[in-house]
Write a structure and sequence with these properties.
By secondary structure, this protein is an alpha/beta fold. The protein has one domain: Carbamate kinase, CATH 3.40.1160. The protein is built from eight helices and ten strands. The strands form two sheets. An eight-stranded mixed beta sheet has the order 3-4-2-1-5-9-10-8, sandwiched between helices. A two-stranded antiparallel sheet has the order 6-7. Helix 1 links the parallel strand 1 and strand 2.
Length: about 210
């Protein structure tokens, strides 16, 4: 089994627990491969302020934001000792964490826009590695009319206003006929269940219909 788990920057306090639980459950004995993609969180927030204040153009802003993901990755490595890799072709058995800058600047696969965040970057990684995509964030899923939506098509999601996913993700999922599940990472067991494909509280985003 292969899975890409994006751990959002909003989970900075919870990320060590999520990773340690993943390491315990997917210890490599069954050949499972779990690749964690870091969000940006407080690191990218500071980049946005700097880019706005000093009128930094989109290309430089994009790579600065990707490097903020790398900063978050090193935070998680420091807290957990999780193995890391800078290549999506090297998808080790067990749990590992992607240092994304080298891979992304080499292939440059996505538009340079604030509409593209680590959500869509993680989706690209999942597509390239043919892996199941789980997005862990700090809410129970995509909320509409004050209710967590259990299932949404990517097309429906694309018509919604601000949600817990970036604006580019619905289109990327539709274009590549991919699915994604959004779960609350404050409950590490939900992340594990989502990786396993079990029934779990969250939002299943369907891009293949």
């Amino acid at each position: 089994m292969k899975a890409v788990v994006k751990i959002g920057g909003s989970l900075i306090k919870n990320a060590p627990s999520i990773i340690k639980n993943l390491q315990r459950h997917f210890d490599g004995s069954k050949g499972d491969r779990i690749l964690i993609v870091p969000g940006g969180g407080v690191f990218v927030a500071s980049i946005k302020k700097i880019c706005s204040r000093y009128s930094i153009k989109s290309d430089a802003s994009h790579w600065m934001a990707v490097l903020s993901m790398q900063q978050y990755a090193y935070y998680m490595i420091d807290k957990t000792g999780v193995n890391s890799t800078d290549s999506i072709n090297d998808f080790p058995v067990g749990v590992s964490l992607l240092l994304p800058y080298k891979e992304l600047i080499k292939k440059d696969p996505l538009p340079h826009s604030w509409n593209v965040t680590s959500d869509t970057i993680a989706a690209w990684v999942a597509k390239e590695t043919e892996a199941h995509y789980v997005k862990a964030t700090d809410v129970d899923g995509v909320i509409a009319e004050d209710i967590v939506q259990e299932i949404l098509t990517a097309k429906e999601l694309s018509k919604m206003e601000l949600t817990c996913v970036d604006r580019a993700l619905p289109g990327f999922l539709m274009e590549n006929r991919m699915d994604c599940i959004v779960v609350n990472g404050k409950f590490p067991e939900r992340v594990i269940d989502a990786v396993l494909g079990e029934n779990v509280v969250g939002t299943h985003i369907k891009g293949n219909i």
